[in-house]
Amino acid sequence: MTIRVVLADDQEMVRTGFRMILEATDEIAVVGEAADGRAAVDLCRRLRPDVALLDIRMPGVDGLEATRLLAGPDVADPIRVVVVTTFDLDEYVHTALLHGATGFLLKDAGPALLVEAVRAAARGDALVSPQITTRLLRQLGGSPSRAAAQPVEPLTDREEEALALVAQGLTNAEIGERLFVSASTVKTHVSNLHAKLGARNRVELAVWAWQTGRMDDA
User: Fold this and answer.
1) Can you give the chain as a three-state secondary structure string?
2) pLDDT by 10s per residue, the chain, length 218
3) Residue 181 — φ and ψ, nearest 5°?
4) Residue 121, Cβ density class (10 Å: 0-12 exposed, 13-18 middle, ≥19 buried)
5) Largest interatomic CA distance in the chain
6) Which residues of 29-59 are buried (b: 16+ CB within 10 A; e: fewer)?
7) Cα–Cα dist 192/187, whole Å
């Protein structure tokens, strides 16, 4: 199945480079490009891509606001957004993910990680540049909060194990290897976690794990 992608960056050279990298694979097609956030939002709403790759610093509506408009908590049918930026700033990462982004990638992460970020977003995983993952989740979680929303049903032991690995940034395949189960079984556990915790994506699962003190020793 082809993964349909919209690219948004105010630099044409960057868009051209990303398009070449992504379309060098067999399963990714760039279906649209935009040079600013407002155009990106309009394009994504019209084309409904599988993944939107958004730069942060764009004229008019920036990538963070565009992310909120496409994937924020108030969006009924969110689009999966991966924010790609030159700037490894905690405030940007924090805001992007709270606005619903399913991934955050630095532009110097390299072609392989760019492709994997798109693939991960398309399948419902979250990919954040490895160098900022743990720091990011600690900040998003803040100090453990025992008042965090409680699950509608208690988590099973297996779901707790899967949750901890999700919070470490592992994909379903990697979690399956750790737990000695199939990727489809992991997908079932993650789906159950989404339902029980009211989480819309893996980042929200990870934040909840940190907020409730489950990752204190991580």
Assistant:
1) CCEEEEEECCCHHHHHHHHHHHHCCCCEEEEEEECCHHHHHHHHHHHCCCEEEECCCCCCCCHHHHHHHHHCCCCCCCCEEEEEECCCCHHHHHHHHHCCCCEEEEHHHCHHHHHHHHHHHHCCCCEECHHHHHHHHHHHHCCCCCCCCCCCCCCCHHHHHHHHHHHCCCCHHHHHHHHCCCHHHHHHHHHHHHHHHCCCCHHHHHHHHHHCCCCCCC
2) 899 999 999 999 999 999 999 999 989 999 999 999 999 999 999 999 999 999 999 998 999 999 999 999 889 899 999 998 887 676 787 788 788 888 888 888 889 889 988 998 998 777 665 555 556 666 655 544 445 678 889 999 999 999 999 888 777 888 999 999 998 999 999 999 999 998 877 777 887 888 888 877 75
3) -135, 170
4) buried
5) 50
6) ebbbbbbbbbbbbebbeeeebbbbbbbbebe
7) 9
Residue 13 tokens, joined: 């050279």
